Amino acid sequence: MKHEELTHKIIGCAMKVHSTLGNGFQEVIYQRALSIEMKKQGLSYQREMEMKIYYDDFDIGTRRVDFFVENNIMVEIKALIKLEEVHLAQAMNYCQAYNLPIGLLINFGSKSLQFKRVYNVNHPENKEYIKNNPKIIKS
Predict the structure, then answer these.
(1) At what angle do helices 27-40 and 4-21 cross, to 10 degrees?
(2) Any bridge partners for residue 62, and if so which?
(3) The pTM is what?
């Protein structure tokens, strides 16, 4: 997968943050810590980047993505005891709405760090990968 190395690096940053802070803080604390860790690892990103959402070529509003890394990867973070299907659906919808090939959903709220890679099945970069990996989480 084209962005596997980058997602691996982002997940590594999240693991470092979680191993240092543990669970139990508010989401904003993890955002700030992840921002520091990604900067230390030389990753370029925008935090809480406002992105437009379109429906049938009409601008219907905006949504802020927690992180947009290396102009390729959307990272949505949570600080919940347990991820629910609605959180996964949210991350998948962002990939679709922003026309991104892949995104990450990272949860710092559980005892162990939880993360999921989410794929936009309609993105041209993913066609071959999804065909060969039918069990991946997709939007």
Answers:
(1) 120
(2) 52
(3) 0.86
